[in-house]
Amino acid sequence: MSLTDRSITAFFWVLVDKLGSSGANFLVAIILARLLTPEDFGLLAMIMIFFELSNTFIQSGFSYALIREKEISDIDKSTTFIFNFLTAIFFYIVLFFSAPAIARFFHQDILVQIVRVMGLNLIISSAAIIQHTILTQRIDFKTQAKVRFAAVLISGGIAIVMAYKGFGVWSLVARIGLMELASAIFLWVVNPWKISLRFSRQSFRKLFGFGSKLLAEALIDKFFRHIVQVLIGRFFTTAILGFFTQANNFVNMAANTFQQSIQRVTYPVLAKLQDDRVKLKEAYRQIIVMSSFIIVPIMVMMGVLARPILLTMVGEKWLDAVPFLQLLCMAGVTYHINSVNIDLLLVLGRVDLSLRLEVIKKAVTLIAIAAGGLTYGVFGLVAGQVISNYIALFINTYYTDKYLNYPLGAQIRDVLPSLAFSAAMGVIVVLMQNYITAEDLTYLLGGTAFGVLFYLGGHYLAHTEEMRLLRVVFIPKAMRIVRGRG
Description:
Layout: H1 3-35, H2 38-59, H3 62-68, H4 74-106, H5 111-118, H6 120-126, H7 129-137, H8 141-164, H9 169-190, H10 201-235, H11 238-270, H12 277-304, H13 306-313, H14 322-347, H15 351-396, H16 398-404, H17 408-435, H18 440-462, H19 465-482
Helix pairs in contact: 1-8, 1-11, 1-19, 2-4, 2-5, 2-10, 2-11, 3-7, 3-10, 4-5, 4-6, 4-10, 6-9, 8-9, 10-15, 11-12, 11-14, 12-14, 12-17, 13-18, 14-15, 17-18
């Protein structure tokens, strides 16, 4: 099978994973949102930054370093496993004793118990990092899709029962913990690996030499990705943080379903093209074109239909999340382009440059959210985060221009059809909302159907490259996969 066919097959299974397991996860989240309160979601959001940062330390960029290897040796696996597992234990101890201070910072005593229970997830997830990395390096996303879907069903079902029985925020805690536990068990079952407990300093230096810069970059990224949640949790109410978190969940489901699907496939696949700049550039160009074809209209539609989406799916008690959802959709349009451009540096092994860009971007982010928050309060904080995403486009594409001769202007020209048809679609749906009176569910279904037909029809009539690739490459390949011949 050619690399192109392998990449399309991999993307298909990652997409199945995201649409299946993430779709099921999202459905669980909607049910929980109806059973629980904004305050419950806000409590959990307050502490997620501590677990994201701890988990980043545990992985230390080793996964990316291993994926770049043509063959992963047993000593590399063993060294990575030992380091990850011991680091997880260390951070659990740190979080266990830091829990009272975290609770005092947010003025929520219940966070002591929540932090100490959720800290166990770090140890559980660290035990299966090697299995996950090996499957990714092999571009085997079919197995991962099955594992994740099974874990979602088990954890989600138990969490819903707990929420119905009145366990409140503990339903959300159980959902995350059971997801990690089920995933780890299933990964060990489908991809067993004999632990040798050998630690090699040479292997560690090789992997950490690449991974250390990724670690620094990831720490900066995780911190600033959650800094708005920390600020909202510290200076505003738990309910407001819950509204922001729910809006963020909707955007992550829509934008990250495709962006992460693309990123998970493109990194191991394009790492194999790192020595051929001509093919690498064309591959990146097609990735940006097709990802924009999917993600941009979804973000536009979610933004203009924010109110009926929230009313229909999670109920009237979540209406205060509408402005957050609209703002985050504006940022969501940029996620995939920023991500693809940064991935280029990882593929080329220039993590030093990636780290440099990350420091610059986060300095911009800090200025933007500080200026917005001091001037316009909670919405200013979020707006500052949105603006920083657009500024990041200019920063992230600097080295793409240098190494592939593919500047931001050329990227915008390539995605212009999707931007134009999405904008026109959004305007029309907004006008429909202003002049047509209908129930929220009716308007949501009707507006979505009309918007999709208008958008696809525009691409079809304009004979765009996106439509050609969809009809000639992706749909036929997907059909062969479904029939078991791809």
